[in-house]
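Honest question from a wet-lab person: if I give you the sequences of every part of a complex, can you actually get the arrangement of the whole thing, not just the pieces? Trying it with mine:
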Amino acid sequence: MLDGTALDPRQLRDAFGRFATGVTVVTMLDDEGRPTGVTVNSFSSVSLTPALCLFSLGKEQVSCRWLREGSHFTVNILAAHQEDIAWGFARPRDDKFEGVPRGDGSFGVPYIDGSLCHFECRFWAKYDGGDHDIILGEVLNFKELGGEPMVFYKGAIAALPE
Ligand SMILES: Cc1cc2nc3c(=O)[nH]c(=O)nc-3n(C[C@H](O)[C@H](O)[C@H](O)COP(=O)(O)O)c2cc1C
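Yes, you can. This is the full assembly:
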């Protein structure tokens, strides 16, 4: 009988990578009130009324600690020209915002300037998702600027073909 525990995680990860997605950076404040963020491609829209979106975050990720009841975060949908920002927020650094153009959000969390769109969210719920947490945010405000999207496919970042 087939059993999920027999699957090879590396092969499964590669197979999941066959799903082309956009790329976001979820920005937030750490417990000292310093802006930080994490690159995330597991973003998804969920509900219009109430306005909800979700993403999943590895339980070991440092950013997971800052997302809890009462916190705010902003989902920034990256544009094709923001590849350096995508990789920059995907590795540990003391100040992930260094050199990143930012704007002041309505709830104290900066957004990334030049992104296609950003959604300012309030933590709504967290669900257990195995080695990840599934985080739902209530969208309180959003701004759409437009531009060319960034695409993530099979572990690589690309732009949409013309
Ligand atoms: C394109 C891309 C998408 C990613 N998507 C996710 C994701 O959805 N969830 C996740 O937990 N990590 C994801 N990561 C990995 C994190 O960005 C990375 O582990 C980061 O260093 C975590 O930062 P932190 O430890 O400061 O929280 C992604 C990385 C890249 C490059």
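Two things worth pointing out. The chain is about 10% helix and 40% strand. Residues 27 and 37 are 4 Å apart (CA to CA).
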